[in-house]
């Protein structure tokens, strides 16, 4: 079952890209941290990263804030 944070990232990413069917989020535990890997199509990578990385930075900030509510560290990786 996906965490609420993973569902939020997937929801936002699907609205940013042109091919929402190619969006998926994987969750993995690494050293006590939750790592979310956001997969998008190669053509949509730039849309998720944004100009100068602004959208990616905003998504990571949101993920960290959600993790702080659960008192755990959550990281976001964007994968092509």
Write up what this structure looks like.
With 80 residues, the chain is α+β, with helices and mostly antiparallel strands. The protein is built from three helices and three strands. It has helices spanning 4-16, 45-49, 54-69, and strands spanning 24-30, 33-39, 74-79. A three-stranded mixed beta sheet has the order 1-2-3. It starts with a helix and ends with a strand. The mean pLDDT is 93.
Indicate the topology.
Layout: H1 4-16, E1 24-30, E2 33-39, H2 45-49, H3 54-69, E3 74-79
Parallel strand pairs: 2-3
Antiparallel strand pairs: 1-2
- Label the structural class: alpha+beta
What is the C-alpha radius of gyration, as a whole number of Å?
Answer: 12 Å
| Gross geometry | globular
Q: Largest beta sheet, briefly?
A: 3 strands, mixed
Query: How much helical structure, as a percent, in the residues?
Result: 40-55%
Number of strands: 3
What percent of residues are in strands? 25-35%
Average pLDDT reading: 93
Short description:
This protein has 80 residues and is α+β, with helices and mostly antiparallel strands.
